[in-house]
Amino acid sequence: MDKLLNKYAELVVRTGVNLQPQQLLVINSPIECSDFARRVAEAAFEAGAKDVKVIWSDERLARIRLDKAEAEVFDEFPAWHRDMFMDFKAKGAAVISIHASDPTIFQNVDTDKLTRSQRAAGVALLEYRQAMMNNELRWCVVSIPTESWAAKVFAQEDGKTAVAKLWQEIFATVRIDEEHNPVEAWQQHIAFLQRACKFMNEQKFTALKYSNSLGTKLTVGLPEGHIWAGGAEIAGDGVEFVANMPTEEIYTLPDRNRVDGVVYASKPLNYNGNLIEGICLELKEGKVVKASATKGQEVLEQLLAMDEGACHLGEAALVPYN
Predict the structure, then answer these.
(1) Residues with Cβ < 8 Å from 141, sequence gap 6 or more?
(2) Is 0.90 topped by the overall pTM?
(3) 277-321 pLDDT, tens per residue?
(4) 192 pLDDT above the threshold of 90
(5) Fewer CB in 10 Å around end: N or C, the chain?
(6) Backbone dihedral region for residue 238 (phi beyond 0: left; psi -120 to 50: alpha; all else: beta)
């Protein structure tokens, strides 16, 4: 297990953010993932990092705060916190985010507080997040098991067995085993996705049609000149990186006003510590005009009311059949 974990940490550093000598690395990590965060930090220093900064998060403490604090508290985002992120941006840091959470940690929390908190952070960190999304910085999102998450995926197993099974699934999806070099495996995988992008870009399709056994019948219009991307990306400094591990998709921008039909989600959505299940969206001329869920209806409505763009699709993707 030690060998696999160290391979994973090295993969994230050397292929994920493709850390360069004397570069600053920032790690966002839940406190439950501290062991892996330390492994990533060690791999980064071995790769020549100038320094490594870790930003710890604690979702249990966040739950206590959401339950106990006054609603007005969540309208504020500390200036020092924003300044810290802007300093990372100014220094051209690479950013690794370990995303691992309890899918129901914020169940039954006051949704108004969640909305206020997200809105305040969104406004304060707009410039920083735009830099990330524009690939001015190199970034990578990965995940490791937590007991609460594993218990949801493998509900029939005891805690340790569930975590072990989830590790197996994660190692498989990020192409890590004891015998092979995962960096080489990812180079081959990226090349495959880039061939898929090349094919789609050559075809210049005008629309995608999605269907599934649940009743999805959705037509997604594609704008003239749209571009397919996927696998690896190029940062502002010209260095290649992989933003998501695992990734199987190629993706493009849909036409904001040409999405019509009905789409049923085949999996639950973990949104801010709430599970939304049985999602069904009806879209007309690009906008969600009707939304329902068998569980988490209120949270779904809150998500769609977040801002003007929330009722429109921002991305369309394709993945291999298998």
Answers:
(1) 96, 97, 99, 243, 244, 245
(2) no
(3) 999 999 999 999 999 999 999 989 988 998 889 999 999 999 988
(4) yes
(5) C
(6) left
Q: Show the tokens assigned to 237.
A: 């400094």
**Cα–Cα distance measured from residue 261 to residue 27, given in angstroms and rounded to the nearest whole number:** 40
Measuring CA to CA, which residue among 165, 137, 134, 133 is closest to residue 152? Answer: 165
Q: Do 299 and 276 form a contact (C-beta atoms < 8 A)? A: yes
3-state secondary structure the chain: CHHHHHHHHHHHHHHHCCCCCCCEEEEEEEHHHHHHHHHHHHHHHHCCCCEEEEEEECHHHHHHHHHHCCHHHHHCCCHHHHHHHHHHHHCCCEEEEECCCCCCCCCCCCHHHHHHHHHHHHHHCHHHHHHHHCCCCCEEEECCCCHHHHHHHCCCCCHHHHHHHHHHHHHHHCCCCCCCCHHHHHHHHHHHHHHHHHHHHHHCCCEEEEECCCCCEEEEECCCCCCCEECCEECCCCCEECCECCCCCEEECCCCCCEEEEEECCCCEEECCEEEECCEEEEECCEEEEEECCECHHHHHHHHCCCHHHHECCCEEECCCC
**Residue located via tokens 């609603």:** 71
Higher local confidence (pLDDT), 272 or 250: 250
Q: What is the pLDDT of residues 219-264, one digit of tens each?
A: 999 999 999 999 899 999 999 999 999 999 999 999 999 999 999 9
Cβ within 8 Å of residue 172, ≥6 positions away: none
Q: Which one-letter amino acid corresponds to residue 118?
A: Q
